[in-house]
Amino acid sequence: MEIISDIKKMREWSDNVRLKEQRIGFVPTMGFLHEGHLSLIREAQRYSEKVVLSIFVNPTQFGPSEDFSKYPRNLQRDLEMVEKENVNIVFTPGHEKLYPKGYQTYVQLESLPNHLCGISRPTHFRGVATIVTKLFNIVNPHIAVFGQKDYQQVAVIKQMVEDLNFDIKIIASPTIRESDGLAMSSRNTYLSPEQRLSSTSLYQSLKKTQALIKEGIKDVNTLIDNAKKIILNFSETSIDYIKICDIQTLEDMININQPVLMALAVKVGKTRLIDNMVLYP
Ligand code: AMP
Measured from the CB, is residue 127 less than 6 Å from ligand 1? Predict the structure, then answer.
C-alpha cells in the first residue's frame, strides 16, 4: 500500500495502471473509517484490479455552522484499518492543493439538491459534486463506489456523471449497520451513551414504516406521523426531515403504490444523523 498526497504523482500512478490495461476502482471518503467504508473497498475490488481510497475532509461540503473543524480525523488509525484490505493507494491530498487561493469553480446540479438534505444544507451538494469531480479528474478511475447510506449523494453523483459525460461506472453499495440497526457513520463517535440509544430510533422508524405498509397503510402522512412519534419518544431527538419520496426524482409521494424511498435526518443532541430505506408495497 502506498500513500500519495501529491496530485501529479496520483495522476502518474493512474496513467501507468491504465497503460497496463488494468481497471482502477475508487472509494472517496472523509476518513475516520469504519466497516461501512471497508465494505466499499471490498465492493471496488470486485470490479477492478487496483483500488484507490481517498481520505479528504472536504471543507466546501460543510455549511458555516457545521462540524468541519471538529469532524473526527485520525490518519494513523485509518491507515492501520486499510492495511489489511488490499488497497493499492491511499490518496490524501492537501486542502491548499485542492482549493488554492483564488479557487472559484463549482459544480452545481439543478434539481436533485432541492430535496431532503439539500434543504437544510443548501451548499452541501455543490461541495460534494465539486470535490468528486476534482477527485475523478485526478484519480481517473474506471469505477467508483459510494454508500447507499447517503442515498441522495449517490443520486447526485450518478446524475452528474451522466450529465458531464464522465466515463466512470458508479456503484451504490448497501448500508452497513451496527447490530442494533444504527447505520455506521464517522459522526456516531459524537454520541454519548444515552444519545447512542436514541440513535436507534432512525432504523426502528424505517422498519416500523415498512411493517405498516405491509399491513396495508398507504397514506404517506399517516406513515410519517407514526415515524415521528417513534423518534420523538427517545430523549434528545429532534427531526430535521422525514420524507417518503420517489426513488429517482426524490419528489414527495402521497400514496404508496410502488417502491418508495423513506429518508430521514434526525438530530440527536447536536449530532445530525441520516438514514434511509427503500420500502415496498
Ligand atoms: P464519508 O467518509 O462519510 O464521506 O463516506 C464515504 C463513503 O462511505 C460514502 O460513499 C458513504 O456513503 C459511504 N458510507 C458511509 N457510511 C456508510 C455505511 N454505514 N455503509 C455503507 N457505506 C457507507
Answer: no
Q: What's the pLDDT band for 203 if we cut at 50, 70, 90?
A: very high
79 burial (CB, 10 Å; 0-12 / 13-18 / 19+) is middle
Tens of pLDDT along 144-178?
A: 999 999 999 999 999 999 999 999 999 999 999 99
Q: Report the alpha-carbon distance of residue 223 to residue 206 in Å, rounded.
A: 10
Q: Rounded distance, CA 91 to CA 16, Å?
A: 16
Find the catalytic residue in 34, 37, 95, 142: 37
pLDDT tens, position by position, 6-61: 999 999 999 999 999 999 999 999 999 999 999 999 999 999 999 999 999 999 99
Alpha helices by DSSP H, the chain: 7-19, 35-47, 75-83, 95-98, 117-120, 124-139, 151-163, 193-198, 201-214, 220-232
Pocket test for ligand 1, best of 40, 62, 75 (most atoms within 8 A of CB): 40
